[in-house]
Amino acid sequence: KQYNQEYKDTTTKQAEQFKADTEKALADLNTKIANEIKRAEDTLSDTQASIDNNLAALKRVAASVGALQAQLTADDLETNADHKADIAAVKDEIGFRFSQIKHPVQAFDSLAQIQAKFPAGADGDMLAVDTGHIYIYQWDSNQWKDCGVYQAQGLSQADQDGINNALKSTGTVTDSSKAPYN
Q1: pTM of this prediction?
Q2: How many other CB atoms are there within 10 angstroms of residue 152's CB atom?
Q3: Which residues are 126's β-sheet partners?
Q4: Cα separation of 11 and 4, whole Å?
Q5: Which residue, of 26, 59, 76, is where some domain finishes?
Q6: φ, ψ of residue 106 in degrees (nearest 5)
Q7: 113 shares a domain with 48
Q8: Whole-number Å distance between alpha carbons of 101 and 95
């Protein structure tokens, strides 16, 4: 009987201890689960707030892009490729125009005669024979510009005669200190 009572008391104590340990373990487990749920909820809230902020930012970017597209459409702006094509076309046109320029020299008795014939200017080189100077019209200043002596102009007759006479001998030299030319 005494064994039975001790056994019963020990079993009861152990059952109470087991119950207390189990309740404490369950309470700890519930606390841990509650903490994990709270942390997951907080993380989910933070993630949702971040998603909401990113979505709001993307909506602002989309609105800005829409406004820029509307402005581009309204201003009828051309693309970079179109711009480069236009530049190439302008370069080709300029090259073609320069290839068509002809500057035949026109000869006039004087600058006054050039100005009388072309009071509003003209393309090309104009030679004033009286001075041997070339004149071109400057469109930016609306004036005839003197470009100096025409390089293709020959020597005057007096200069040619002087050279020709200087190279001819007039006789035999008897004095060795004198040159054999006139």
Answers
A1: 0.34
A2: 8
A3: 106, 135
A4: 10
A5: 76
A6: -105, 135
A7: no
A8: 10
Amino acid identity for residue 146 in this structure: D
> 37 pLDDT exceeds 60?
yes
Contact assessment for residue 128 and residue 148, using Cβ atoms and an 8 Å cutoff: no
pLDDT(144) > 50: yes
Taking residues 78-107, what's their average pLDDT? Answer: 81
Cβ neighbors of 114 (< 8 A, separation 6 or more) are 108, 126, 128, 135, 144
Residue type, 122: A
Determine the Cα–Cα distance for residues 175 and 173; give it in Å rounded to an integer: 6
Do 71 and 139 fall into the same domain? no
Pairing of strands 126-128, 106-108: parallel
Amino acid in position 93: E
Please give the pLDDT value at position 149: 86
DSSP sequence for 98-164: HHH-----EEES-HHHHHHH-TT--SS-EEETTTTEEEEEETTTTEEEEEEE-TT----HHHHHHHH
Domain that holds residue 34: 1-76
Query: What number of H helices and E strands is found in the chain?
Result: 4, 4
Same domain, 71 and 111: no
Residue length, the chain?
Answer: 182
CA 77-78-81 angle, to 5 degrees, is 155
How much is the mean pLDDT over the chain? 83
In-domain check, residue 95: no
State whether 65 and 2 are in the same domain: yes
Residue 111 has pLDDT above 90, yes or no: yes
